[in-house]
Design brief:
Rossmann fold, binds NADP nicotinamide-adenine-dinucleotide phosphate, alpha/beta, globular, 42% helix, 8 strands, eight-stranded mixed sheet
Length: 231
């Protein structure tokens, strides 16, 4: 039985790098993206370099798209070992907690918090068929409550705090799974910008480790650099 992984939000940035590395380790990667052209191109690039990569169209903010993606996956594979919930957004204008609209917060939560929850729900039947199911929620140090907020992109940070709550709840609800949150650090991507301190390889490291070599009993934690950090 080979290992399958799916990584929604992987046409670029950290998600692309995670998919690339997992394909290099022999996973059959189902590369998820909402943009068909970008997703297919990314999956083809990885397939050329190493391993089996299949494009899966998925918009994590759209329930119908997520359930369709799980159905599509089930046509190609009978189980899922690793789900990496990587898709994330910072909405333009997310500059101040007192100024931002309910709509801005809702939009952010829809992708960053409800997205990982609805994708996990949709794929749980397939994950349950794995010998060692793993769910990795790509969160952010911006969501940490320890140390207090610094005021940067408050809706984004709130969505990641809530995502960490989702991780903790899922870890309890799915005791045979390893479910964890990861902060990749500040990474040079379209989201992180070119001034960021980490490469995509560094940003992907803990995610790939949790997907492959980390102990299965490690669950319900928030990690950076392969180590637990406070919520
Ligand atoms: N970069 C950092 O410094 C940093 C730090 C902490 C945490 N993170 C987290 O790391 C993750 C990856 O970020 P990144 O830096 O690689 O960002 P990125 O380069 O902007 O990539 C984000 C990815 O998410 C996808 N996405 C967004 N909304 C989606 C949706 N509704 N359905 C499916 N895919 C969707 C994007 O697709 P499109 O191309 O279609 O937009 C893109 O592939 C995010 O969860 C982010 O919050 C990043």
């Amino acid at each position: 039985m080979h290992e399958n992984s799916t990584d929604p939000g992987a046409n670029k940035g950290i998600g692309y790098e995670v998919s690339r590395q997992l394909a290099g380790r022999g996973f059959h990667v189902f590369l998820g993206a909402r943009n068909q052209n970008a997703g297919r191109k990314a999956a083809d690039e990885i397939a050329k370099e190493s391993g089996k990569t299949t494009f899966l169209v998925i918009d994590v903010a759209d329930n119908a798209s997520v359930t369709a993606a799980a159905r599509e996956f089930a046509k190609a594979a009978d189980h899922l070992d690793v789900l990496v919930n990587n898709a994330g957004i910072v909405v333009n204008g997310d500059n101040g907690i007192l100024e931002s609209s309910d709509e801005l917060l809702r939009k952010t939560l829809e992708t960053n918090t409800l997205g990982p929850l609805r994708v996990t729900r949709a794929f749980v039947p397939l994950l349950t068929k794995s010998k060692a199911p793993r769910v990795i929620n790509v969160s952010s140090g911006g969501g940490q409550l320890t140390g207090g907020a610094d005021g940067w992109s408050p809706a984004y940070c709130i969505s990641k705090t809530a995502l960490n709550g989702v991780t903790s709840q899922l870890a309890t609800a799915l005791p045979k799974f390893a479910v964890n949150s990861v902060c990749p650090g500040w990474v040079r991507t379209d989201m992180g910008g070119q001034a960021a301190t980490r490469s995509v390889e560094q940003g992907a490291d803990t995610i790939v480790w949790l997907a492959s070599d980390a102990p299965q009993k490690l669950t319900g934690k928030f990690l950076r650099d392969r180590k637990e950090i406070p919520w």
